[in-house]
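Entry 14. Two folds queued back to back today. First construct below, sequence then structure tokens.
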Amino acid sequence: MTWISPGFGDTIARMPPPAFQPIAPEAAGMPLYRAVKRALLQSIEAGTLAPGAALPNETALARAFEVAVGTLRQAVGELVAEHILVRRQGRGTFVATHSAERFLFQFFHVERSDGLREAPAVEMLGYERGRLDDEAAEALGSRPGDPAFLVENRLLLQGRPVVHDRIAIPASLFKGMTEKRLRERPGTIYRLYQDEFAITVVRALERSRAVAADRATARVLGVQVGTPMLQVRRTALTFGDKPVEYRVSTVRTAQHEYVQTLSRPV
């Protein structure tokens, strides 16, 4: 399966704008723009502002909150920087959806050593309803042995197997998940979470280390047991930093690198 999904503008949800309440400066208990940001986040998390939905124009939104347009812009700017909102030139500001472009920019950092970056082709190797081991349970804030869906994938770049992914998601959060849904999804797995389970991954915590390929990874990636690899352990987080997925990605680095762009807020 290759991850291909529509751009932001192709799936815009059309719905009546939500009714926002005025924010009283003396009752906010925080800088006013942060109170506006929190109110917008609450609407997005509750689904009142659905993925792909357009925000009301700045003037109308500032009037609804009874704040200055500059205050509103500061709140919206932070949400754009956090990839929760996206600005479309000449069209407005929208709640971000999980497109292939967003996945490649925000959540996939493996590229060829010459700088070529592309979305991987995904081969699903295994799917089962199992239980969380100690490591996954700790990352997900669950108990060892809790029911989970366990997925094994091979990711190909330029036609070569490069990444061995092992994914664990809590069964309690993904009721109704099936192998068919995973195999036949039209977009990324995070788009599936968003569209069918109302779970939006907004960021991820990653830890990386050098490892030697074990037998399973050697078989999946076509290398010798003991080959040096990079392993990335990711906990995907939704609103409120709630963990929703634990993933162990073992990367073949003979011709590929893990590249991350770091920046400071302006």
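Second construct, same run, same settings:
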Amino acid sequence: MTQPAQLGRYDVVAEIGRGAMGVVYRAVDPMLERTVAVKTINMALDPGEMEHYEKRFTIEARAAGGLNHPNIVIIYDIGRSGDLAYMAMEFLEGRELKELIAGNELTADRSLDIVALVADGLAYAHAHEVVHRDVKPANIMILNDGRVKITDFGIARMRTADVRTQTGVVLGSPRYLSPEQVLGKRCDARADIFSLGVILYEMVAGQAPFNGIDVNSLMFQIVNFTPPPPSSINPALPAMLDLIIAKALAKNADERYAGIAEFAADLRVCRQQGAATTAPLAPTAAPQMIPDPTDPFADTLPSSRADDRSTTIPGNGMADTPPARGLAKGFDSMAATMRLAAQTGAITDPDALAATFGVSRHDIDAMVIGADTQPPPQPLPLPLPQTAAPWSPRDRRVFRVSVTVAAAVGALIVLL
């Protein structure tokens, strides 16, 4: 497609990007004498559906144009020029987050800051009933002055995506889809939380939580597998971040954060408590996944992972298979749970807590009372064993205590 000299009132200067449905141009608005980015959609690609696409483009662009937030790209104008529908927006000078991740250029601290700002922008959009549905690193710009901008609002739901299912259903970028999107279910703002959780995992761990040799295996992993905790890949990360990411990546949307603003708040608490300042580890092999014991394809797993499916607890002869959904065992951290409880003021009587759950008062003092004056203890690196070790009675007791305290904290947060 040849470069147009003009789109509406905008004088086209140069092409700056190209996608599946159209091209992005750098242009000048002669009326206001400012540089803008003009994104086009070629309506002639599918004449039979041209009217449908144009109507959806207009509706979605108007919705995005109503958003006014420092972390969302500003939409100036929409229009039609021949076979091209266009959207004029602020011209951003910076780099895509995708490029920074690929170059392993981000520290853990900077990663938390960026994701918290993205969450702020998405929270604003969600409050105005606009759900992005295609949150990915390519749609997040890091400007030269350090600001963060979310792009592609409005057209994410109708733009031709990277993949299609056999039934022709349009999807978003497969690596960052939520389980409900993969399954074709109705999704809401919590889909954006999952996608942002995947991005954060990739930023701090140095590798994506879900990998597959093809689109089908990738989607299967998103729906069925729980990735290892990020700190098992990058030991410099705090245990609290494992818990935060685990909640964002819950398979069931009801088990995620109720709102993305809560996600941002927890990231900032984690940041204040001293996330690591070193860069994430370089990308390595794909993370080991915890298989679903009911997986109909379990017999096709490599023999080296056969023991992952079932281990026997000494003394009772019963199989203890790791769960495929919910939190992986590696995410469980009593210290991180106690610190979260301390931040919200949920633990007001350490003696009562120690007596009720059989936890040492000394341990509670070290984890909670000293949290305000001492930096949080760095977690030990979590190994990635080839076989899942059976849980001891102490492991089960600690897990029950963690779940009980977490539930109490969650209930208190809801009440407050």
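Quick look at the second one. The radius of gyration is 24 Å. The first strand starts at residue 6 and ends at 7.
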